[in-house]
Amino acid sequence: MDDDEGAPIDAATALRTGLVSRVVSADDLLATAIEMAELICANGPTAVRAVRSLVRLTSEVPLEYGQKIAAQQIASIWASDDSREGMRAFVQKRAPVWTGH
Questions:
Q1: Spatial separation of the C-alpha atoms in residues 77 and 64, rounded to whole Å
Q2: Residue 99 Cα distances to 12, 53, 81, 91, 96, angstroms
Q3: Is the pLDDT confidence value at 31 over 70?
Q4: Does residue 88 surpass a pLDDT of 90?
Q5: What CA–CA distance (Å, rounded) separates 23 from 32?
Q6: Domain coordinates of the chain in residue numbers?
Q7: What architecture does CATH give domain 45-91?
């Protein structure tokens, strides 16, 4: 085990290694967080719920089990009404109307 395992890293390192997608100043933090939340909320609620669940799960289970659960979630999302609505909306070049089903 490395002596550095679990040690804090700086923002530049987190960005360079892909741990975070961007780094903003403290002054821009709240506005950026709200912007990102709005982008997430614009997606289908079925998929957003699944991703949130999977993110929480990954810290609690072995990788292989997490991958199996992820595959099941993806199949469920593809079979959902929201998935069909998203595809219809894309083809019709309109904003989707999500139902959460």
A1: 20
A2: 39, 19, 8, 18, 10
A3: yes
A4: yes
A5: 10
A6: 11-41, 45-91
A7: Orthogonal Bundle (1.10)
